[in-house]
Amino acid sequence: MKKIFFFLLISTAALSQPYNGAPKLSTTPQGDESAMLVRQIPQDIDRIGFTKALSNSVDSDWGTIVGGIGAGMDVDQTGGNLVILAGTTARSETIIRSNESWIGGIRLRARSTLSQRNANNNFFVELVDVIGDGLAYTISSATVIVVTFPSGHGFTAENVGQSMYLGLFSGTGTFLSGRYPIASVSGDNITFTVSGFAAGTGTCSAFGWNYYQLHYTGATPTSANFDTQRNGWATGVTAATINTTASPGHMAIITGNDLISTFADQLVASATTIQQTIRANRNENIPDDKNLRLQIRIANGSTAPSATTWTIGLISVSHYANTDVAIQDVKPMHVGAALPVEIMRGVALATQPVSGTVTATVASTTLTGGQTAHSTASTGNPVRIGARVVPTTIATQDNTLVAGEASDVGVTSGQQLIIKQSSTAELDYAFNFSTVASTTTVQQFVPASGTASVRNYISQLVISTDALGTGGVAWILDGALTVSSIAITTGLCTTSTSHDLKIGDAVVFTALAAGTGVSTNTVYYVTSVGSATTFNFALTIGGSNVVPSVAYTGTTMYRILYQQHFRSSGIPQSTIITFPNPLRGIANMITNFLIPTTMTSGTIYITSNGYRGF
């Protein structure tokens, strides 16, 4: 077993001056000082090789076979590999355990190849704590086994419910190696709850109160189970998808530190980039504060399996300091000298970083300099430079933007900035309208856009009149809506198409078919919106709902966009009315004009300025 140690040089002046009662650290040696060799924290790499040719044993330099090889099994070191034959004997088990233990930040690597996979073989690579071997057991029933622990074990009634592994059974009765919960504690006698056992006595091993565990089982060569446990509590195995345990096998990497553990793997073939893929992780029940030993364990199930050969080419355990590091002012030797960094705990990364070029994992499109492209997801700085020439026809206008995307400022092909207060600008318009003040029918004010989903927006009105016979009021109306019914019990109004109404909107009915209780050319206000085609209304804002005494079966209604009052003296000079929030019509519908009560004589002139957009 080869050890590699890491050391730090710290100046002897580091502890020379007190500061607030604690040593003041200075890490820069002075010219008249001597350096002091200090090991930062115990760290080493144990590389377990199988270079010695051994039969029915393993190299004692690194480990031992606990209690002997299981019935029908075989363990050899040959050809630089550890080769284990699982055999065909049901319930047989072999445990190979390291001499050394580790605590703290740990990285376990194991290269494995399995000749086949089946449900009755269980192959484990694990780091476990060991309670004891050769412990006396008594099986009293199918569900109860009592194991005598070594004195000073520390388990009490507070440990009831926690689980650990029992294995390496030797004696009478029926038993099976597995993870079992503690049912009770009485002195050194620990009772476990089991299943399918039969009465008998003998000895067994207890281990894995804490563990990192990789478990190969089942018939699929691209799967492995991963889990961790701390003080008897585990999250539960993750059935991870891996490369393959078929020849030439895979390299499994388990990392545990700083209260997180990850399981990754890669193929053993050589490659020019880092090939590791994160397969699973744990954010709790991490045993990084426990002394753990490496175990290579084979446990056959209760049904006789077919013969499987497990070849392990390499195992290493890295025990390292979990140290936060900031890299600043890196000075390469020349322009081509890159600084390689391997991010081992990039659990959330879809791809591993490579030397030289970093592949972005954010789902966005970036331009030169890192700016997000138009109409793509953006989570960065919203400040943008430049603009996009936008189309000036309805058919080609960009309407693909969604929430959370970046957007360019719109300009014309002559680099004139386009700014609109509402929706997306398309074609500006100016329509001239005039009507005799005695006309009391609905008239077209602005034509429909002619394109589905494109609306009329009125941003400005220019109004003038002759002298009028009487004063009065005029309405600018949204598109006509057909009302199929107004219910007598609730007053719920149902339209045949989407009404686009909001609470507080003013509406007017211009034609009523049957029914009693609602008047034409009377202003009502929306009190609630049940759906895209239903609403209730009242005579005042927030008032009681109007409920007809006889139901209506068909009417015509409009939303009032704007109401203008006129005096009989008229408006001889043009008056300009500008809307900070443009009047917004229903998509692809005519905007209308109505004088509900005749003003007898005179003419009204209105120019509407606006634009069409979504």
Category by helix and strand content: mainly beta
Can you tell me the residue ranges where pLDDT is under 50 for at least 5 consecutive residues?
A: 4-28, 342-350
Total count of helical runs of at least 4 residues: 0
Supply Rg.
Answer: 41 Å
Strand content: over 45%
Overall geometry comes to elongated
Terminal residue distance: 72 Å
* Average pLDDT: 84
Helix content: under 10%
Structural domain count: 3
What is the strand tally? 40
Major sheet characteristics: 9 strands, antiparallel
Within the CATH hierarchy, at the fold level, what is the topology of the largest domain?
Jelly Rolls
Mind telling me which CATH architecture of the largest domain this is?
A: Sandwich
Short characterization:
The protein has 614 residues and is an all-beta fold. It contains no helices and 40 strands.
Layout of secondary structure:
Layout: E1 8-11, E2 17-19, E3 22-24, E4 35-38, E5 44-48, E6 54-55, E7 63-66, E8 74-78, E9 81-85, E10 93-102, E11 105-114, E12 123-141, E13 144-148, E14 163-171, E15 178-186, E16 189-193, E17 200-216, E18 223-230, E19 233-234, E20 238-241, E21 250-257, E22 260-267, E23 277-282, E24 292-299, E25 309-320, E26 387-389, E27 409-411, E28 428-436, E29 443-446, E30 455-465, E31 472-477, E32 481-486, E33 493-495, E34 506-513, E35 524-531, E36 534-538, E37 554-566, E38 575-584, E39 591-594, E40 603-613
Parallel strand pairs: 26-27
Antiparallel strand pairs: 1-4, 2-3, 5-25, 6-8, 7-10, 8-9, 9-25, 10-24, 11-21, 11-25, 12-13, 12-17, 12-24, 13-16, 14-15, 14-17, 15-16, 17-18, 18-19, 18-20, 21-22, 22-23, 28-40, 29-39, 30-38, 30-40, 31-37, 31-39, 32-33, 32-37, 33-36, 34-35, 34-37, 35-36
